[in-house]
Amino acid sequence: MGHARLVRGQTLAGHEALLRHQRQQLRRDRRVRPPREGQRSDGGRAERQPRLPALCRPDRPLCRGAVAPDLLLPDRPRRPRHRTLPPRRRAAMIKIISLLRRNPALTPEQFRTYWRETHVPLVRSLLPGLRHYEGCFPVDGALDGYDADAIVELAFDDRETMEREMNSPAFLCEERVRSSAYLLDLNSVRNILVETEDALKL
């Protein structure tokens, strides 16, 4: 059978065992081929070398965003998401502070109610450049020594706007003059012209 010799008196099973032994011996004695490039002698494969040698420099550890400084473009400086802007300083306004005495025919409650419900809407409609309009009323007779029943403030962006609008025919109309005469003692009105600065915006 093939190249094997059948020994006299040897069974077929024994002959097959002899053939297996001879094949195993040939495998042990065969010449070992030299390892290929990239393959270790123990049959395993060598670790794959990185395509970018700069990535494995020991003096430059790997980190996010700076993997290969020599191969990447420099990062642009990142803008902060929320920029803190300095508070905007509000321009000074021109304000008229008026110390008012009510018409003696009106009670303090009637005086305040008419000013709020009738006089204020009328003045606001006649002064489109008005930026601030406020009435201050005394608590527990706080203005008794000032001979006034209320302090009213009207503010404009500048003096030119104030003079133009308060001398306009619209503001000097008969309806507004009649309303002021009903509400106030016109002979006792005192006006103070001031320039304002918001201390919280400095």
Automatic annotation (TrEMBL):
Compositional bias per record (Basic and acidic residues), positions renumbered to this chain: 32-50
SUPFAM superfamilies: Dimeric alpha+beta barrel
Entry-linked InterPro entries: Dimeric_a/b-barrel, EthD_dom
Chain positions covered by the region annotation Disordered: 1-55
MF-aspect GO terms: oxidoreductase activity
Domain EthD: 104-171
Protein name: EthD family reductase
Annotated source species: Sphingomonas crocodyli
